[in-house]
Amino acid sequence: MFDNQVVAVTGASGGIGRAIGAMFAQNGGKVALSDLSPPVEAAAGINAKAYACDVSSELSVKAFIEQVEGDLGPIDVFISNAGVGAGNGPHVAGGSNESWETSWQVNVMGSVYAARALMPGWLERGSGRFVVTASAAGLLNQVGSASYSATKHAAVSFAESIAIEHGDQGIKSHCICPQYVRTNMTAGVDFSGQREKLLEPEDVAETLRQAIRDEKFLVLPHPVAGEYYAYRAANPDGWLDGMRKMLAKLKETKSYIFKDS
Ligand SMILES: NC(=O)c1ccc[n+]([C@@H]2O[C@H](COP(=O)([O-])OP(=O)(O)OC[C@H]3O[C@@H](n4cnc5c(N)ncnc54)[C@H](O)[C@@H]3O)[C@@H](O)[C@H]2O)c1
């Protein structure tokens, strides 16, 4: 399906990024995986190349893209997947400025830096595919983390802007919005009280494959997230009420996803 397409993935040493890389490799892609340190083990298993890339640094993102293009050829598909989260602290604005800034840099600017480096070549060629791993928190909210919620909303918005601004110039954009997935990010969290299923990273990768096949912007590994998204738009007060009930439950079980920082 992706024969000889050059695919670059960030935040890919494990979890969703690694599974997405493997999915592209299984479907014929030439895959470049990156993370803060080169994800050598993840890359070896799928005959991919491993690179270091800190997505919060524009220089690092630019260098990653240049290295991949030098080694494998022009990038066809870019997966902006690296992500971080932090808890609120004592109240909704209790997280440090540094913590908010890190979330902004990694969850939003990482995509902006990559798009800035890729777009001139893509516009010249009239093709390119940009995939953002946002979150259902970017359509709804992450209870206990205002910074994750705000930055993932921004991540969804940036993916939408690519689709709007450049969709008629041959550039495709997709936004992956899962609820909970079994990765390092969710390790140690008690999901027994959750209504929704904890998916495997491979499920997310397969949903992305299908969304690309069907040219769908929004990638919803948990389809119910789309129903909540519609409910939020139709009935904002009812939705906020439901979220407060969820928060009350989380306070009882203390099963927040993110630690304070
Ligand atoms: N696991 C979930 O339930 C879930 C749900 C929705 C969305 N997501 C999103 O999926 C993406 C992948 O997360 P995951 O669940 O696979 O967890 P993960 O912790 O395995 O992957 C996140 C990766 O991002 C990397 N990273 C962090 N800061 C970086 C930086 N500055 N530069 C480059 N890489 C950096 C980490 O090293 C890590 O490998 C994230 O964007 C996350 O927000 C996860």
From TrEMBL:
Keyword Oxidoreductase set for record: yes
Top-rank taxon, per record: Bacteria
InterPro entries per UniProt: NAD(P)-bd_dom_sf, Sc_DH/Rdtase_CS, SDR_fam
Keywords: Oxidoreductase
Any matching Pfam family: adh_short
Gene3D superfamilies: NAD(P)-binding Rossmann-like Domain
PROSITE patterns listed in its UniProt record: ADH_SHORT
UniProt-listed SUPFAM superfamilies: NAD(P)-binding Rossmann-fold domains
Record family assignment: Belongs to the short-chain dehydrogenases/reductases (SDR) family.
Protein name: Dehydrogenase
